[in-house]
Design brief:
Layout (H helix, E strand, L loop, with lengths): L28 H11 L3 E7 L3 E7 L22
Antiparallel strand pairs: 1-2
Length: 81
């Protein structure tokens, strides 16, 4: 099912926006995905067309692994504990 064009320009990425009925979902999925991807210097694109479906693409920067440890621990996404 294609994402309705009326929802694409603005509200699709808003937290708590959903087209589902009450109690059928929170609408947090796309907002969370977009936030996580943005925190990793990436972006998400959407291609949608009525009768053709929708395609979300996630783009993340390439990671170049160091040959020697830097001695600095990697940045954590969330505190541990």
């Amino acid at each position: 099912m294609a994402v309705r064009q009326a929802f694409v320009p603005g509200r699709l990425w808003e937290p708590f926006f959903t087209t589902k009925g009450v109690g059928k979902g929170t609408g947090l999925g796309l907002s969370i995905v977009r936030g996580i991807v943005a925190n990793h210097d990436g972006f998400v694109t959407l291609d949608t067309a009525p009768g053709q479906g929708s395609t979300f693409r996630v783009f993340l920067p390439a990671w170049e692994e160091r040959s020697e440890p830097s001695g600095v621990p990697p940045k954590l996404a969330a505190p541990l504990g």
